[in-house]
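Researcher: Here's a chain I'd like modeled. Treat it as a single chain, no partners, no ligands.
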Amino acid sequence: MTPSISIALISLYSTLALVTSAFGLVRLMKGPGKLISELIERTLSWWVILTVATVCLFLNDSIATVSLMALSFFAFHEIISKFDLPPEHKRVLRISYCAIPLQYALAYFNQFDLFLAFIPVFGFFCLSLRSVATGKTENISKAMGVLHWSLMMTVFTFSHIALLYKHPISGLPLENRFSLVLFLLVTTELNDVFQFTWGKLLGKRKIVPEVSPKKTLEGFLGGVISTMVLAWSMSSFIGVTTMNALLYGLLISVTGFLGDITISAVKRDLQIKDLGSSIPGHGGLLDRVDSLALTAVVFFYALKFLQ
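Model: Modeled as a single isolated chain. Structure tokens:
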């Protein structure tokens, strides 16, 4: 772990300690309430999330790759279990689960061309042909679509974070890889907080009421501006120009919002509130990292082609 990462993580833990203390003081002064109890529960979950991220993502790239592979495995299992796939098509899941370690192996060994084609192209063909091989045509289009989309959303997307550790970025030393990952995580997750907070404070106009009724235009714009300012303040930390940092902040904020409402739309279709209950106050694993699914992809290619 580099000194800059250590300092950044200490700052995050210190900030979290202050927030936890503030919420605890409010509850002590005003007594227990639904809102403050929910905020404290969410904050305690963040302690666990930050600790797990510290151990799994910032010690070395091998541990990080295995940890991200586990994230994809559980996220894929979480979302695929919510779809009522016919029994015969559930056998195709074996191919899907086998694809996860192979995708991360390609990222770890920086096999970029194969990495890009493996799930979008080869995965598509293999899943489609294996579904046809079952001999059952009822709901086959649903099964093929659900399996491939779920792999794209939970494996192909998150594996781009693993690729950040290994793929050289023009103008940035490989030693910056941990800083880039931390930048991505902090801006993505705080963007969610910013949009939620500004929406609570100023939100009036619904932006996607049919998909996510609590999302407002004011919250979205407030989140975009706040995330851009945060990204600008971290430009020297990741070794990019302030203009590029502002651009990355803009892209992460917008795509984080899109990732959030994408999963919200799926949950509405499935008529469920959360995809799981593994993280108290947040829902399931994918409920917490839905924004990261799209920001990881966009941030990687923004670095690759715009840096």
